[in-house]
């Protein structure tokens, strides 16, 4: 089966970059990315390619090359669905905020709406691909909706989980460790659909890196991969607290442990806690699924990864309060960074949000500098927590465009995101502008204790033994 038209529903962090790379690598396939959010589509179509709504290194160049040639962004969802032989579903699947499974299960209402829309408008056979992270057996629900409400059209459902990490999305898409495709490989039609998707990726991914499995294995592999990665971060973060007590240095421990080839060196960087749209959501999902099968020990095992992560965020914030003589009321605390990691403007589940919320409860005044995050996003993130009124959030937290404004007359500066530019800042200037004693809290382990001491800072670096007072 030769694919000529691809439609992707959802122009977000997954759909946008993935489709841009597919379009660039497959010039003979028309790729249309659709979204109900017209503002987002308009931004993807902005004449100045630097204004596309998602910041990812290298992405604007890829979009610039393919946009208008065989890559299109549109709000006409129905038309794109009907024209395509292959439809990717890349809509958001947040954790449910209501009812059964609240706070744990994935909310599949956007997926279901997509399925119903596909069923309503399709007049020819379709390969429908789950790209969003989904609980195991979602494909079955999709199939059910499509086959029972469709116009007699044939559907093949594939699972093709995304393993790209934000900040390195383009790199990850261009040179993936593996591409995973799950399908109904026991039937001829199913095999054909899998083959069609394999052929899309084979334009640039070596065949031996394209794995095909049954749908359920593919769905569960995605959750498992994210759970394992998050578990490594929680494991090193657990050790960071022990390092602080014992005089060990978490960077040295991570290096020594990571050189064991059975363990490996990646994802052993201790931090103020992992964030992002996937780790927490996927683990909560795993916990929910395990519980629903009565597998309580399995559920408890994975839940501990989240408990550790919450503890890490809380103890970082509590340490700031304790160090600042047990009160931050009315004190200016500068934040360097708000995004959940460097090289992205995404703030979902960012540790900075929770640290800020804790400090605002203690009546602190926070000033944030993040090279890619705007004040309205910071306000929206805090409002979403519903801890205090929107008015109070706006009174107590401000964003600035210059990193040195963060330190001006601040009692403390905290590093929440590991942006490279923070390593280049003039520390002496920061020190001079702060109130004394000048406290520096490094939640990303990017500073060296000795050089800060020489300037005069009282420094806390996560995972290092330090005597602040
Ligand atoms: C993750 C997975 O890596 C990716 O494969 C999947 O498709 C989506 O979820 P992402 O959330 O974009 O990607 O970023 P990732 O690099 O995994 O980082 C997640 C969080 O963990 C960030 O907050 C990061 O700062 C933190 N982290 C990561 C650490 O604290 N230490 C580390 O060593 C690595
Ligand atoms: P992700 O990180 O999974 O890509 P995002 O929130 O960045 O998540 O993007 C998901 C996109 O899907 C949003 O832009 C949202 O407007 C879009 N979306 C959600 N439901 C639908 C739908 N039924 N039809 C079209 N687009 C949708």
Structure description:
This protein has helices at 15-25, 38-44, 59-66, 77-83, 109-121, 138-149, 169-174, 188-201, 215-246, 250-258, 279-292, 296-323, 351-361, 375-385, 390-396, 403-407, 420-423, 427-433, 449-455; strands spanning 5-9, 30-34, 71-74, 86-89, 126-130, 155-159, 179-183, 210-214, 332-336, 365-369, 397-399, 412-415, 439-442, 458-461. It is built from 19 helices and 14 strands. The protein folds into two domains: 5-213, Rossmann fold (3-Layer(aba) Sandwich), CATH 3.40.50.720; 279-461, NAD(P)-binding Rossmann-like Domain (Rossmann fold), CATH 3.40.50.720. It starts with a strand and ends in an 8-residue tail after the last strand. Helix 8 (188-201) links the parallel strand 7 and strand 8. The protein has 469 residues and is an alpha/beta fold. The model has no long low-confidence stretch (mean pLDDT 94). Helix 5 packs parallel to helix 6, helix 11 (279-292) packs antiparallel against helix 12 (296-323) and helix 12 crosses helix 13 (351-361). The site of uridine-5'-diphosphate-xylopyranose has 19 residues, from helix 9.
In short:
The protein is α/β, with parallel strands linked by helices.
Features:
alpha/beta, Rossmann fold, six-stranded parallel beta sheet, 19 helices, 45% helix, 13% strand, binds adenosine-5'-diphosphate
């Amino acid at each position: 089966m030769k694919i000529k038209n691809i439609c992707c529903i959802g122009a977000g962090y997954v759909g946008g970059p993935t489709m841009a790379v597919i379009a660039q690598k497959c010039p003979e396939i028309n790729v249309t990315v659709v979204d109900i959010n017209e503002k987002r589509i308009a931004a993807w179509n902005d004449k100045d390619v630097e204004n596309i709504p998602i910041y990812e290194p290298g992405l604007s160049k890829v979009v610039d090359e393919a946009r208008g040639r065989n890559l299109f962004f549109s709000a006409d969802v129905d038309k794109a669905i009907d024209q395509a032989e292959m439809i990717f579903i890349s809509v958001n699947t947040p954790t449910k905020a209501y009812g059964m499974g609240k706070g744990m299960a994935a909310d599949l209402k956007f997926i279901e709406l997509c399925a119903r829309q596909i069923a309503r408008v399709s007049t020819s056979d379709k390969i429908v691909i789950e790209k969003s992270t989904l609980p195991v057996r979602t494909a079955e629900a999709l199939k059910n909706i499509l086959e029972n409400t469709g116009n007699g059209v044939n559907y093949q459902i594939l699972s093709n989980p995304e393993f790209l990490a934000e900040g390195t999305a383009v790199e990850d898409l261009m040179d993936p460790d593996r591409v995973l495709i799950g399908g109904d490989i026991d039937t001829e039609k199913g095999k054909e659909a899998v083959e069609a998707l394999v052929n899309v990726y084979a334009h640039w991914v070596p065949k031996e890196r394209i794995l095909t499995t049954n749908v359920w294995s593919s769905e569960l592999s995605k959750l498992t991969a994210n759970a394992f990665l998050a578990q490594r971060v929680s494991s090193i973060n657990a050790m960071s607290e022990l390092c602080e007590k014992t005089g060990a240095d978490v960077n040295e421990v991570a290096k020594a442990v990571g050189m064991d080839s059975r363990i490996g060196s990646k994802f052993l960087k201790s931090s103020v806690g992992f964030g992002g749209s996937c780790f927490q959501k996927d683990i909560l999902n795993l916990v929910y699924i395990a519980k629903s099968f009565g597998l309580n020990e399995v559920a408890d095992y994975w839940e501990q990864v989240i408990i550790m992560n919450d503890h890490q965020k809380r103890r970082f914030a509590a340490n700031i309060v304790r160090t600042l003589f047990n009160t931050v009321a009315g004190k200016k605390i500068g934040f360097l960074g708000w995004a959940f990691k460097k090289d992205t403007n995404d703030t979902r589940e960012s540790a900075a949000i929770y640290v800020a919320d804790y400090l605002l409860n203690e009546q602190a005044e926070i000033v944030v500098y993040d090279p890619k995050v705007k004040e309205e996003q910071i306000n929206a993130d805090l409002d979403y927590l519903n801890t205090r009124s929107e008015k109070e959030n706006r009174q107590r937290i401000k964003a600035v465009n210059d990193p040195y404004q963060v330190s001006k007359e601040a009692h403390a500066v905290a590093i929440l995101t590991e942006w490279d530019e923070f390593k280049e800042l003039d520390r002496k200037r920061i020190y001079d502008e702060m109130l004394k004693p000048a406290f520096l809290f490094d939640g990303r382990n990017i500073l060296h204790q000795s050089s800060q001491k020489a300037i005069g800072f009282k420094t806390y670096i996560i995972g290092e033994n330090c005597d602040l007072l």
